[in-house]
Amino acid sequence: MQPIRGTKDILPDEIALWQYIYRTVHEILTIAQYSEIRTPVLEMTQLFERSIGNGTDIVNKEMYSFVDQGQRNITLRPEGTASIARAIISNKLYTTNNINRLWYLGPMFRYERPQKGRQRQFHQLGIECIGISSSMADIEVIRLATQILQKLKYDKYTLAINCIGNLEERSIYQQQLTEYLNKYKNDLDIDSQKRLITNPLRILDSKSSKTQQILQDGPKLKSYLQTKSIQHFNTICEHLIHLKIPYTINDQLVRGLDYYNYTAFEIYDNNHFNAICGGGRYDTLIQQLGGPNIAAVGWAIGLERLISIIQQNIKIIQPKLDIYIAIPEHLNNPKIWNIVHILEEYKIHFEIDLTFNNIKTQLKRAKNLNAKECFIIGKNEIVNNYITVKILETAEQKKIDINILPAYLQNFKSVK
Ligand code: HAM
């Protein structure tokens, strides 16, 4: 049996890094007053159609959607922002707090062609700052992204930002762009020809050099931006300079989801050119989904992509095995659990051998596992209330009374 194409097991030797990332992110975001939220993996399909947009690749061809037993149209979430916006509305979170700073980490699902850095089930770490329209919130979230990456010892990335204006500015621009591109329709790449009808703005980030050449002389979104949009963007740039966060302005950056306005940004890995993080402002999304008019901004980092890069730099020290408990004969005496209980109280890392193999085999495993000591507990030991301790490095052997086990472990820990 193989896992489903585009999905992956995260094995025990990889999980330590995932846990380390979780702890690191938890610490940084808790200090900044972001609270963790967990939303369901399953949502109504229309949530994504109404937020990400019907003309987008995600909704058009990448969603895992099905009809459930109750004839509802359900989708495995392809991203987190729509679910967070839905959760804000369903739980009326805006009534208890004007500002909701939230973060999440969980699996997302997109039916894309699997390749390096692209899976069908992948994980996003995301933050959403909901309830602030000021550009200060954009700066806060961008700063937090770079802070997290820095803490994870990753700095070989490029932050690209763009101002994509508001709906009005964009729709005027879209009209002009479509008019211009229609003149060159047959010279555009096939995808862009389709996008001319479904989502013309996405043509801007086409990978085709011919299309890019045509775009060069076309109308620029920048020229359609009004003062408010420009000021919003300029403030972000000023603060990023002050914060010494390097960035590049990328006029072509429009993002593949429809809900953005004003700010759009991405963080790319310098070597693989993959987007590690994507985000932006989405001031109309919550209202569009039936909630109140609440501005918001956020981002999501693709964890598999990030991990594939940082795993070289971060060495996680796994806790060592302290004590191996060898039971050399069939011992059904419950007193063994009293010893286990004391080890747990002293937070000693232990493993019990439950094979009842001969003592030689058990000691061999204790050595292979690099345990410091082996506690041998046989019938004799149980009856006479002691433990035979073997120091594995020196092969020295001694007996300790179970009554003095706490004191022994205290000493064991202090010299460990
Ligand atoms: P996105 O750009 O679609 O934005 O995804 C964010 C990140 O998820 C990407 O930069 C990438 O690292 C990772 N990612 C996306 N698809 C895959 C895949 N198939 N396999 C592996 N990694 C992938 C969003 O999802 C927005 N919700 C971000 C956001 C939050 N905007 C505002 N708040």
TrEMBL record:
NCBIfam families: hisS (TIGR00442). It comes from Nitophyllum punctatum. GO terms for cellular component: cytoplasm. SUPFAM superfamilies: Class II aaRS ABD-related (SSF52954), Class II aaRS and biotin synthetases (SSF55681). The keyword Nucleotide-binding applies. One of its GO terms (molecular function) is ATP binding. HAMAP family: His_tRNA_synth. InterPro entries: aa-tRNA-synth_II, aa-tRNA-synth_II/BPL/LPL, Anticodon-bd, Anticodon-bd_dom_sf, His-tRNA-ligase, HisRS-like_core, HisRS/HisZ. Its EC number is 6.1.1.21. This is histidine--tRNA ligase. Keywords: Ligase, Nucleotide-binding, Plastid. L-histidine binds at E79, G80, T81, R110, Q124, E128, R255, Y259, Y260. CDD domains: HisRS-like_core (cd00773). It catalyses: tRNA(His) + L-histidine + ATP = L-histidyl-tRNA(His) + AMP + diphosphate + H(+). It is an enzyme of class 6 (ligase). Residues 1-328 form the Aminoacyl-transfer RNA synthetases class-II family profile domain. Pfam families: HGTP_anticodon, tRNA-synt_His. Transmembrane segments: none annotated. Belongs to the class-II aminoacyl-tRNA synthetase family. The keyword Ligase applies. GO terms for biological process: histidyl-tRNA aminoacylation. Gene3D superfamilies: Anticodon-binding domain (3.40.50.800), Bira Bifunctional Protein, Domain 2 (3.30.930.10).
